[in-house]
Amino acid sequence: MKLLRASDHKRMPWKNGGGETVEIAVSPDGAGLAEFDWRVSMATVASDGPFSVFPGIDRTLSILEGEGMTLFIEGRAPERLTQASAPLPFAADAPTSATLIDGTITDLNVMTRRGRFTHSVRRVSVDGTVSLASRRGVTLILCHRGHAEIAKLSLSALDCLLLDAGGQETSVSGKAELFQIDIQANRLR
User: Fold this and answer.
1) Beta bridge partners of 183
2) CATH class of 9-113
3) pTM metric for this prediction
4) Is the separation of the CB atoms in 10 and 36 below 8 Å?
């Protein structure tokens, strides 16, 4: 179990140079954009335009702040993504562009290297105590809003807890909006 405080997240330029991303966690530790197995980050998007292309990567986007955006992913119908939308999975090597709905947004971006890892992302509302079931592998719990307590560790907005879950249940208490990110290694590597 590792607590990743919001104040310690790493800031770095986008791959395409069009903005800045805040890296929450990456594996292996210290891996760059060409070497990671999986990566969880946030980005502020202030203008319409193309997304960076990541060959061999699957990604899931969720809107954290702002009105949202419409994504144009090659081979798919346009997708409107807002704070109320479910996290949206798609191939990061498909040419993609976005049009903002009404001003700047911040998104949550989860990426895994296809063929090596898979991931899932879901929103969780906590008001009291809930039990989160995780898959085997690594689970990250990102506190989007509010405050949560997990195993005597307190999470505030944008803090993240990294768990080597092993398919266990985790008790979470407090009043918070969370994202649960499960990452699994493929068995045939």
Assistant:
1) 119, 138
2) mainly beta
3) 0.92
4) no
